[in-house]
Amino acid sequence: MSMPPLDESVTVDEAGIWDAEAIAQVAATTFPLACPPEAGEDDIADFIERTLSAEKFAEYLSSPERTVLEARTGGEIVGYLMAVDAAPEDPAVAEVVTARPAIEISKMYVMPGHQGSGVSSALMEAIIARATSLGRAGLWLGVNQKNARARRFYEKHGFTVVGVRTFVVGAQTHDDFVMQRTL
Ligand SMILES: CC(C)(COP(=O)(O)OP(=O)(O)OC[C@H]1O[C@@H](n2cnc3c(N)ncnc32)[C@H](O)[C@@H]1OP(=O)(O)O)[C@@H](O)C(=O)NCCC(=O)NCCS
After folding, report:
1. Among 19, 108, 156, 165, which residue has the fewest nearby CB atoms (within 10 Å)?
2. Does residue 8 have a pLDDT over 70?
């Protein structure tokens, strides 16, 4: 397998409301890559329309609890991360996330041509630095149980599986692992 070159020109910045459209485009391209093979096309399209539209990103970008980080190379947004600085609402998550207060990495997506290039690590390092500077005790996330690449990526960054949860995509329910990293 050929690997993309390490991308040393990557910059990570907090996104602004004016980036909503561009981030929604990256989100629509990359969300299907995180879904298991049995995910239905209609369910994925429904999720993108309801959750990853430019209007939704404009809402996320205006929410005081949420932070969207964007990674750029050569001026283009090639990846983004959305963090939520709030206590987990899902009881299955609340039970297993022991680091409190913790920040959730709610979305973490890199364009296919930029995976394996350091863009993802730059995003992850930026949110870990932010969580540390805010004095949070840890970070947590949910990842589809069949998404071996993402799970390996999170393990490399110090996350371990602490539990499971379900995640609704359209009419389907997917099985996730819950992973946590303490700081
Ligand atoms: C998840 C994601 C952000 C990780 O970023 P990345 O740049 O691909 O991560 P890296 O290349 O640094 O690390 C991936 C690791 O998984 C390994 N890997 C690749 N394919 C794999 C597979 N099928 N099974 C297991 N491990 C795999 C890689 O070899 C690498 O490990 P290594 O560095 O020890 O060799 C990125 O792949 C992505 O955006 N994927 C699509 C969207 C997604 O799944 N997002 C996560 C939602 S929770």
Report:
1. 156
2. no
